[in-house]
Specification:
about 425 residues; alpha+beta; six-stranded mixed sheet; three-stranded antiparallel sheet; 14 helices; about 45% helix
Length: about 425
Amino acid sequence: MDEDEQFKRIKEICSPFEIKIEQLAQIKNQMFDEINSSSEIPTNLKKSLTFLQYFPTGCEHGRYLVIHLEDNNFRIHLYHMRGGNDPIVSSEFYEILPDLLSGGGIELFANIANSLQLFLKKLQLEREPLTLVVELAAVVNEATSVFSAGSWKYSKCLMGICLGSEDTSVAYTEKTENIPPPNVLCPAKPFVISHLDWGVFGENGCLDHIRHELDIEVDKLSLYPRKRIYEKLICGNYIGELARQIFLLCTREGILFNADIGKHLTVPFSFNLRHICEVLAESPDSFDNTRLMFDRLGIMKPMDNECLKVKYILECLARRSAALLAVGCACLLERVEESHVVVCIEGSFYENSLIYQEFLGNYLEKLVPEGKTFELKCVDQAIDIGAAVLSAVSQQQKFLYQAMEDNGAEVIQTSQQSTTDES
C-alpha cells in the first residue's frame, strides 16, 4: 500500500468521528430538555445551586489565601487583590507523600496546616494581625471558581467552564425566579450561580448513536465504565486513549509507525492530553517536538509522513471534542437570556491548542440561536484566582451586612433618644 492509499485508509478510519451539524443540534435539544426536565424525562444531569448571588465588581481588595488540593500535590497561594489591577501572587508547591495519601485524613490536613504555617513564615506574615486570620470563606467547585475569575475580569461573563483532562463541568447564571422551593434565596437578587455537572450527560443512552466501537473500548478501560459518557467524548486524556486505540489499529494494518508501535503505547492511557497538545501545536513544516515526544514513547524518530498521519488523527478527534463541547455551551447560551455573553474556559486542551479554540468557535457560531453573540476567554490560573475573588466578595458582603446592622442600631438608638427628649 503506497502513501496515498495509507492516508486514504486513515481517513476512512477517522470518518466515523465526524458529526454532522444536524446531529449536534439534536443533541443540544436533548440536553436542553434534560436541564429543564420534569419527572417524565429521564436524566442523569446534576444541577446544583451554589447559593452565590453576589457577583464580583472588579474592585475587590484584600489578601486571601487559597489552597488548591490535587491528587498527589497541593499549592498554596496568597492573592493580594488590588481593585482593577492584576493581583500580586505568592505561591508554593508541595508534594503529598504516598503514606499521607493512603493514611487517614487527619494526617493529611495536619501536613497542609504545617505547610501553611511555613508558607506564612517565609513571607514574614505569621504575626500579621486580623487581616491574616485564616477563615473559611468559601469552598467551591472548580467551574464556579472559573466563573468567578471570568466575571471578575469581564463584566459580561455569565458562564465558566472547567475542561479538565478527565472531567468537565460548568457554572452559569440562573434567574432567581426559576429556582423552585424549598431553596431559600434573596428575591431582591435577580440571579444566582448554578453549577451543572454535565459530564454525566449521555448515561441514559442519548449519545449512543454517535459513539464508535473504540469509544466503547475506552469506556471499558476507564475507572467507571458506562458512566460520565459526555465527559469521555470531550476530555483530553480520554481523547488521548482513543487516539492510542486508533494508533494500534493503524499499526496492525501496517499503515503507521512501520507496523511497530513499541512497548510504551501498548499501555492504556499512556498517550494523554499533554501529548495531544504537543502534536497539535506543531507547524506543518516542522515536527521536531513530535519526533522527540514519540522518541520518549519508544518510537524512534518517525518520518514527516508519519507525523502528518498522527496530526490528522488528533485533529479529527479534537474537532469532535470541540463540537460536543460547543453543544453544551450553545445549550446554556440559549438558557441565559443576555444577548451577548462572555464564556470563560479553563483547561489546557483549550488554552494550549489554537486549533481547538478555532474548532470550538466555529461550531458555536453554527449552534447558538440567531441574535446571540459570544466571546470565548481564558483567565490565567482561573481556578485559584476565582477562589480568591469569591473570598473577597464574601468578606465584602460580611462587612456590608455588619455596617447595615450597626447603622440600624444607631437609627433605633437615635429614635429612642428623641422620644425620651420629647417626653
